[in-house]
Structure formats: C-alpha cells, structure tokens
Amino acid sequence: MRGVARHHGAERGAGTVLLLGVVAVVLLCFLGLAALGAAQHARARAQSAADLAALAAATAARSGLDACTTASAVTRRNGGEQADCLPGPGGTVTVTVVVPVRGPALPGAGQGAVARARAGPDPDVVSGSAG
C-alpha cells in the first residue's frame, strides 16, 4: 500500500456537508408534516365548535333566547372565536367560527382554521313548500 498516494485535499469535509444537507432536508420534512398536522387538527376543532354552536343557537332560538349570544358562548367554550352568526328563516342559524392553529404554522396559512355550520329545521318544511 506504500505505492498508492492518497489525495484528500479538495474533497476533505464533503461528507460532512452532505450529511448536514440531508439532516436539514429531513428536519424541513418533519416541520412541514407537523404544520400540516396542526392545521388539520385546528380545522377539525373549528368544525366541531361551529357544529356545536349552531346546534345550541338553533335550540336557543326555538326557546326564545338570543341565538347568537348562545352561539358565541359555546364557541368560546370550545376554544374558538365566533366570526359570524346569521339567524335565518324558520329558526335556522348559521355560525362561522375561527380557531387558532397551535404549533408550527404554514406560510400564508392565515390566522386560523375557519368552519361554518347551519342548524335548525329545514326552512322548506317549516314554510310548507316541500314537495
């Protein structure tokens, strides 16, 4: 092995740089997956909060109470913020809820997850126009 000359000069440390690049790509992939998971979790929480708020609001409207005040209280108890509440015909209520995303956020994803739900009797059946 004495006759073989080793030339390390130009490639010295190239493996370290390559390894650091691979580690950086893997970390970015994990961060991306964590952000997607956080966004999906927030979306599910927002939809649940909107569904519950709409049901509570429709029940309150049927009982003669303020539907939107009830929806707002239910939304807050479920970790969201009521963005909109629209009482409709025949005791229906449409509620829009925003829930903040916890954890890493995706760039350009906005402030949080938004969901909308409507609850109450079918307005066509209530008005008697169902076929």
What does the model show?
Residues 15-60 form the Putative Flp pilus-assembly TadG-like N-terminal domain. Keywords: Membrane, Transmembrane, Transmembrane helix. This is Secretion/DNA translocation related TadE-like protein. The chain has 131 residues and is an alpha+beta fold. It is 50% helix and 18% strand. It has three helices and three strands. It has a three-stranded antiparallel sheet. Helix 1 (14-62) runs antiparallel to helix 2 (67-77). The longest helix has 49 residues, at 14-62. The model has no long low-confidence stretch (mean pLDDT 85).
Task: Please provide a brief summary of the model.
The chain has about 130 residues and is an alpha+beta fold. It has one domain (about 15-100, about 110-120).
Put simply, the count of helices is 3
Please tell me the total number of domains: 1
Outline the biggest β-sheet: 3 strands, antiparallel
Q: Name the helix and strand elements from N-terminus to C-terminus, one letter apiece.
A: HHEEEH
Q: Strand share of the residues? A: 15-25%
Helix proportion range = 40-55%
Query: How far apart, in Å, are the first and last alpha carbons?
Result: 95 Å
Strands ordered across the widest β-sheet: 1-2-3
- For the secondary structure, the number of strands is 3
The Cα radius of gyration reads 27 Å
Shape: rod-shaped
Organism: Isoptericola jiangsuensis
Domain Putative Flp pilus-assembly TadG-like N-terminal: 15-60
Region (Disordered): 107-131
Protein name: Secretion/DNA translocation related TadE-like protein
